[in-house]
Amino acid sequence: MSEPENCPLCQLAPTSLLWSDAYCLVIPAQIPGIGDFCRVVWRAHVREITDLVDADRHRLLNVVMGVEEVLRDLLRPVKMNVASLGNQVPHLHWHVIPRFQDDPFFPDSVWAAERRPPGVRQALSEDVLRTALEKRLSSVTKTPL
Amino acid sequence: MSEPENCPLCQLAPTSLLWSDAYCLVIPAQIPGIGDFCRVVWRAHVREITDLVDADRHRLLNVVMGVEEVLRDLLRPVKMNVASLGNQVPHLHWHVIPRFQDDPFFPDSVWAAERRPPGVRQALSEDVLRTALEKRLSSVTKTPL
Lengths: 145, 145
Prior knowledge:
The structure is a homodimer of 145-residue chains. Chain A is of the alpha+beta class and 145 residues long. Chain A has a single domain (4-142), classed as HIT-like (HIT family, subunit A, 2-Layer Sandwich). Chain A is built from 2 helices and 5 strands; from the N terminus they run E-E-E-H-E-E-H. In chain A, strands 1-2-3-5-4 form a 5-stranded antiparallel sheet. In chain A, strand 4 (79-84) and strand 5 form a beta hairpin. Chain A is globular and about 40 Å long. The model of chain A has no long low-confidence stretch (mean pLDDT 94). Strand 4 (79-84) of chain A pairs antiparallel with strand 4 of chain B.
């Protein structure tokens, strides 16, 4: 089990953040043939979402929902995949992954074997993503939970 | 894309339900070597959680959280995995899966290749699971969202 001192999600560089507030971080990630996606990371080293009090669960899930909306809007995927696994890095985080009919794994999960070689997918501008997240998520911490 | 007339999640037999309310269904599922887990299904044929209004997103996520609590309590897994994929059946549903150090896939996702053959895991009594879900989820539809 990872402890805070050797947990990669406890040691994220501030430069890698797309968005953050006092509770959550949004960081960029990529999968070949799928392209850009986001991870939503709870700041504190907590194992499961159900270790959080209700208000904090809702804070985190509101961010996950907002990130899904932003990625849908920017990328027009055929499906969104949302998952919190953490078997390898048991620090609470959510993957928010756009899926495309021609991506290497579709219609399997991105953790399955590739069905086809990764094609080229246009990268999302980090500025565009940051701006969209800021606009969509600015109200999250003020929203009633 | 599945349409309601050929969507398996639009045609669940009432006998297969562990719990239900006007919005959500909880159904049992099994993976060899992991054993019992639950799927939380939105009743209406909706593709993405972000197609729902906020109150409905919260209703669904409150059920997912409650199911995670019940499975943690009954099974004491080393980790919980929660995911909404729907690439094969694009009718909004969430997998709530307990994970064990010695399960066939650990520490990979259950959608990855097996690392070891499935061992025997004791089945959860459906009565015990129903009773625990009823107790935990009875307040969900009355909880402020």
